Amino acid sequence: MFTPPPSPIPPKTRPPPSPAHLASDELLVPATAPPLVPVVTSSPSRYKSARRLRWSVLVVPFMLILIAAATRFLAHPAAFDLLVPGAENKWDQWSEKILDWRPHSGHSHPSQPHDHLGTPSPILSRRAATPTVAPPVPQNPMLPTPFPQPFDTTLSTNFSTTECYNFFLNMTQTTPFRSCRPFSLLVTHSQAFQEAQNNITQMNTDIWGTCNTDLSWDQCNVNMAWFASALQSSCVKDFSDQNAMVAGTLTALQAYDLMRKASCQVDTATNAYCYVESVGSSDPSSYWFYLLPLGQPLLGITTGACNECTRQLMATYAGALANTSVTPLGGLQQTYENAAKTLDNACGSNYAQTVNVSNAAFARTGIPHVGILLLGVLLAPFFFTT
Questions:
Q1: d(Cα 264, Cα 251) in Å, to the nearest integer?
Q2: Could you give the 3-state DSSP secondary structure of residue 133?
Q3: What per-residue confidence (pLDDT) applies to 118?
Q4: Is omega for the bond preceding 146 within 30 degrees of 0, making it cis?
Q5: What confidence score (pLDDT) does residue 138 get?
Q6: Which of 173, 209, 223, 305 is the most exposed place for a label (fewest CB within 10 A)?
Q7: Strand-strand pairing, 266-267 and 272-273
């Protein structure tokens, strides 16, 4: 007969705790609640620091870009050139250049501007003339009719906008412009004026005409300043496209007063116009100095430039550069320093006055580099204080 196996032993179970056990010291749960974990909250100062950091990330690059852009137009410390893309900055010169806070002129004007087609700006040069002694200053001569005018044959349609082209047409036809007979534009953009160089008597008469205008000298200065301002507002696109004729015209308008003084200068030894003497001379060395305010560098000179007229002319230029209240003279700022050194090499040291062109440029900008540094010092705590 089959005998079944014994039943398995039931597992031992732990009896439920009695009230006595719950009251004992062997509690499995702490009698008191654990301490609360402190919640970390951001203080107002941390929010403020984070906000400043965010603003600094946005504003600081903008300020650097602004400074770099300003170096194209304003005089600035040389160290700022490190921020300019494409500047000639060698890595091994950084430590020296970053400490260089000497004034440095802007980079806005290339040495030889170009027009839309990439061809050099048309600048009329001195014509070869048979050496002729300049006659004395004439007395109320009969002026040619019409009097030579700028852009008599050089005004093309190579403009970016119709507005700019119309401005030139209107300017060259208006009495306030024509009556002032601007030597600064005649010398480079008038075919009739250039032709007169072949006749020293006619040239003498034309120079008298530029020095003795129907309108007063002061009124002509006002007129040319107005045309310079209107040119900049009417030809914005042409300036952006580096139209050489437009840029050169602005330089000439701004140099009107200075170049009128230059053309009317009289050689006290001969009572002849110094400019007419330079035209009649077989050596063109003295002639090139009259183009300096237009941004034209010297083409090379001889000791023929060592005369009282050139010395007085350079003194006039130096005085204009030192006078911070005059109209901007960007062309002369580019050329004076090298011209003075060249003249000193040819004629002897200190023949031309030394002028700190960079400092003169700073004074005209109205934003000296010390002001830029002070602005940075004032703004730095606002952005970086924690």
A1: 19
A2: coil
A3: 36
A4: yes
A5: 97
A6: 173
A7: antiparallel
Map residue 273 onto helix, strand or coil: strand
Residue ranges in the chain assigned as alpha helix (H): 19-22, 44-70, 94-97, 162-173, 175-178, 183-189, 191-195, 200-211, 217-234, 236-240, 244-254, 256-263, 274-280, 308-322, 330-347, 357-365, 369-384
CA distances from 181 to 289, 291, 316 (A): 20, 17, 21
Tell me the pairing of strands 103-104 and 266-267: unpaired
Section 43-67 average pLDDT:
65
106 or 297, which is more confident? Answer: 297
Tokens 């002694």 — which residue?
133
At 35, which amino acid appears? P
**370: helix, coil or strand?**
helix
187/168 Cα distance (integer angstroms): 17
Q: Determine whether 328 is exposed, middle or buried from the number of CB atoms within 10 Å of its CB (0-12, 13-18, 19+).
A: middle
CA 134 to chain centre: 39
In angstroms, rounded to a whole number, what is the distance separating the alpha carbons of residues 351 and 308? 10
Angle between helices 308-322 and 357-365 (to 10 degrees): 40
What are 17's two structure tokens? Answer: 């705790």
Q: The whole model's pTM is what?
A: 0.65
CA atoms of 213 and 179, how far apart (whole Å)? 6
Residue with tokens 């500047």: 87
What's CA 269's distance to the chain center, in Å?
40
| Burial readout 191-221 (b: 16 or more C-beta within 10 A, e: otherwise) | ebbbebbeebebbbbbbbbbbebeeeeeebb
**Residue whose entry in the numeric block shows the structure tokens 């082209």:** 165
The C-alpha torsion from 82 through 354 and 296 to 214, rounded to 10°, is: 130
CA distance 295 to 287: 14
293, 151 Cβ separation under 8 angstroms: no
Candidates 363, 272, 266; CA nearest to 316 is: 266
